[in-house]
Amino acid sequence: MTKQRYNLIGILAAVLLTALDQWTKYLAVLHLKGQSPIVLWDGVFELYYLENRGAAFGILQGQKAVFLICTAVVLVLIAFYYNRLPGGRRYTLMRVVAVLLAAGALGNLIDRMRYSYVVDFLYFKLIDFPVFNVADCYVTVGAVLLAVLILFVYKEEELGFLSLRKRDERQKDR
C-alpha cells in the first residue's frame, strides 16, 4: 500500500471517529443538558451532562487559548509522525494510535472552539471517576496502546521513525 493510501485511510478514520464523538456530544446536549442524570447501572454508571472548561479532572479551568495552541501543536506532531511511519502491517497498530489520538484531540478541540468548553457526559459513579466523553476514550486508549507498543512490541531499532535525526546519523551511532 502506498503512503498516500495510508494517509487517506488515516484521515478518513480520524474524521469518522471525530464525527462519532461529535454526534454523541450532540445527543448529550439534546437529551441531558438541564436534566437529571440517566442511570444506566445504579450506583455504577450514569449519563451526566457537564460543561468542562478545563482539562482532565478539571485542571486549567478557563484557559481556552492554551488548549487551542497545545491541541494544534499536538495535531501537527501526530500528522508529522504518522507520515513518517514505515509501510507494512507491522505498523498498523501505530497508525491506529495516531488516528485515535488525532480524533480525540479534534473532538475536544471542536467543542472548545464552538462552545469554549468540552461536553462531558459519561460518569463512572462507582469509583467517582471524573465525567468524560468519547474523545477522552480515544485519547486514553491511544495513549495506553502507544505505551504498550513502545514497551513491549517494537524493538528500539523499529522506532527510528520517531527520531528527528536522519537515518544515516542514527545508524552511525550503533
Q: Can you give a write-up of this model?
A:
This protein has a 3-stranded antiparallel β-sheet with strand order 1-2-3. It contains 5 helices and 3 strands. 58% of the residues lie in helices and 11% in strands. The longest helix is centred in the N-terminal third of the chain and has 30 residues, at 3-32. Helix 3 (92-115) packs antiparallel against helix 4 (134-153). The protein has 174 residues and is mainly α. The model has no long low-confidence stretch (mean pLDDT 92). The protein has one domain (3-164). It is elongated, with a radius of gyration of 19 Å.
Produce a short descriptive summary:
58% of the residues lie in helices and 11% in strands. The chain has 174 residues and is mostly helical.
- Output mean pLDDT: 92
Along the chain, the helix and strand elements come as HEEHHEHH
Instruction: Tell me how many strands there are.
Output: 3
For the sheet with most strands, the description reads: 3 strands, antiparallel
Strand content: 5-15%
- What percentage of residues falls in helices of 4 or more residues? 55-70%
Summed up, the helix count is: 5
What is the domain total for the residues?
A: 1
**Quaternary class:** single chain
Point out poorly predicted stretches: none
What structural class do you assign from the helix and strand content?
mainly alpha
Radius of gyration (CA) equals 19 Å
- Provide the spatial order of strands within the biggest beta sheet: 1-2-3
Compute the separation of the termini in Å: 30 Å
